[in-house]
């Protein structure tokens, strides 16, 4: 097993089974640990801490102690630390990418791209840290002044998923620190090592102790409840499934905690009759196959105009068959293993259901023999509207294709979902593409582009895909409170 990425942790006094709490590397309070496995081989990577309620509370205390100092730290200094972290992440791209491949499984190419994306949140929010607006002006009725100021919301707690072990953490950490808030992070149980490595680099960049606390654990509910049940936690940001998000929203209600939720998607990918089919195939590969399809904005279902359906199916099928599956670190591999066996079983179930209802496999790639949780790149055609795969998040390398002739009817099908995260439209007519984009119920639309994510743009969903936005000018808002002062003088 290639453990090169773990060397990053050797930069800190990290010992196997430690949490990062109050600037120190310590075992969990009750000393418990759990194993993390490599999804490409099933081999044990390391044991990490199984933090519990006591650690969760201690982390709140550490964050609370650091809050006043950080709030008083000049924004320029906060910005410099974030910028230095950006540089350090870039410098250590290879080691971070290897760590991501090791615990998540994705292809090295995707992991390296993730490190770039994750690092950019530090650059973007380093730039935003010094541009937090306040205002001072006359009350419209005259006679007194309106002062509107922004201040950090306070201790913030994050729960993140395994599909982007670095980026889902930095997308939250960077704006929170930029705004002046201390951070508590519970990474996904499957991918805690990358989050610990990010903590190492932030520390090296000069982040004072207590401002980032990382608690790896397989006792997610215990840590989540301890944070949401404590009134010192003022902001909660979650990325994960809609089901878990709903549960956490209920818990957040008790203390009326301010929440941001990035939940599941069911993105339609629309190919119009006037699309550049080759560009649409390239976009479909990006939107479907990045991270093996284990991406919440992944194209989940395809609506292809009947006039170009044969050409699109043939070219897309050829591209999918050419996908090389294997260990993410092997030369030329573009599809790594899925995160675990239940993930593969769920994808297989969705494919079996579609086939039982009349769908056909138009193209399928190969997967290596032996261990590892692999699923082949697959294109399904003739998928009927009632197939589960059109209504549930696939989270894997399977593309169900359907056709359309009427735009309104296609839009009705595309919008018939409780989700509304991303969607994609391919058309050479920008007027048509924009008209469709505006009518698609989604927080984000890629027009003639299969890659949407950009730290400088607001990421987030409508309907049951979430609440709030991350990245862009909007991203820092989640960590700022507005205070209005009516100012008069005697
Ligand atoms: P997935 O199926 O991808 O694991 P989840 O939404 O369950 O999706 O997981 C996303 C994150 O939410 C992970 O960090 C996981 O540990 C965490 N999580 C799951 N259940 C809970 C819970 N009850 N309370 C707090 N965090 C949870």
TrEMBL record:
Pfam family, one: Aldedh
InterPro entries: Ald_DH/histidinol_DH, Ald_DH_C, Ald_DH_CS_GLU, Ald_DH_N, Aldehyde_DH_dom, Aldehyde_DH_Superfamily
Positions of the Aldehyde dehydrogenase domain: 25-484
A GO molecular-function descriptor: oxidoreductase activity
EC number in record: 1.2.1.-
Domain of life (superkingdom): Bacteria
Keywords of the record: Oxidoreductase
Keyword match Oxidoreductase: yes
Residues of the active site: 262
EC class (word): oxidoreductase
Family: Belongs to the aldehyde dehydrogenase family.
Protein name, as recorded: NAD-dependent succinate-semialdehyde dehydrogenase
Species of origin: Streptomyces hyaluromycini
């Amino acid at each position: 097993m290639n453990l090169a990425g773990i060397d990053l942790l050797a930069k800190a006094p990290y010992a196997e089974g430690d949490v990062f709490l109050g600037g120190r590397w310590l075992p969990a309070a009750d000393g418990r640990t759990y194993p993390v496995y490599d999804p490409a081989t099933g081999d044990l990577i390391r044991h990490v801490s199984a933090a519990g309620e006591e650690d969760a509370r201690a982390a709140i205390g550490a964050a609370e102690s650091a809050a006043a100092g950080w709030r008083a730290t000049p924004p320029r200094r906060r910005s410099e630390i974030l910028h230095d972290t950006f540089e350090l992440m870039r410098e250590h791209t290879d080691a971070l990418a290897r760590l991501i491949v090791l615990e998540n499984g994705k292809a090295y190419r995707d992991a390296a791209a993730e490190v770039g994306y994750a690092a950019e949140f530090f650059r973007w929010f380093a730039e935003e840290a010094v541009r937090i607006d306040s205002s001072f002006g006359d009350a419209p009725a005259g006679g007194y002044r309106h002062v509107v100021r922004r201040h950090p919301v306070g201790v913030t707690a994050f729960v993140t998923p395994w599909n982007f072990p670095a980026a889902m953490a930095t997308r939250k950490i960077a704006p929170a620190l930029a705004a002046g808030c201390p951070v508590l992070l519970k990474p996904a149980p499957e991918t805690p090592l990358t989050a610990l490595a990010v903590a190492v680099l932030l520390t090296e960049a000069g982040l004072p102790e207590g401002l980032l606390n990382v608690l790896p654990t397989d006792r997610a509910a215990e840590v989540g409840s301890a944070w949401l049940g404590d009134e010192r936690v003022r902001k909660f940001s979650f990325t994960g499934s809609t089901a878990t998000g709903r549960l956490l929203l209920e818990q957040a209600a008790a203390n009326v905690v301010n929440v941001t939720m990035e939940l599941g998607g069911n993105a339609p990918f629309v190919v119009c009759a006037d699309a550049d089919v080759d560009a649409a195939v390239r976009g479909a590969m990006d939107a479907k196959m990045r991270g093996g399809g284990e991406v919440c904005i992944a194209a989940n279902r395809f609506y292809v105009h009947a006039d170009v359906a044969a050409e699109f199916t043939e070219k897309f099928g050829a591209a999918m068959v050419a996908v090389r599956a294997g260990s993410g670190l092997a030369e030329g591999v573009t599809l790594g293993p899925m995160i675990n066996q239940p993930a593969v079983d769920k994808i297989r179930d969705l494919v079996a259901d579609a086939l039982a209802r009349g769908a056909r496999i138009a193209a399928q790639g190969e997967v290596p023999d032996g261990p590892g949780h692999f699923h082949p790149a697959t294109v399904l055609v003739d998928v009927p509207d009632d197939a589960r795969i059109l209504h549930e998040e696939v989270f894997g390398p399977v593309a169900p294709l359907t056709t359309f002739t009427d735009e309104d009817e296609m839009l009705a099908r595309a919008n018939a979902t409780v989700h509304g995260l991303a969607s994609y439209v391919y058309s050479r007519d920008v007027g048509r593409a924009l008209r469709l984009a505006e009518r698609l119920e989604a927080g984000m639309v890629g027009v003639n582009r299969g890659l949407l994510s950009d730290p400088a743009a607001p990421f987030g969903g409508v309907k049951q895909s979430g609440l709030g936005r991350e990245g862009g000018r909007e991203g820092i808002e989640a960590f700022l409170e507005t205070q209005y002062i009516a100012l008069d003088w005697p």
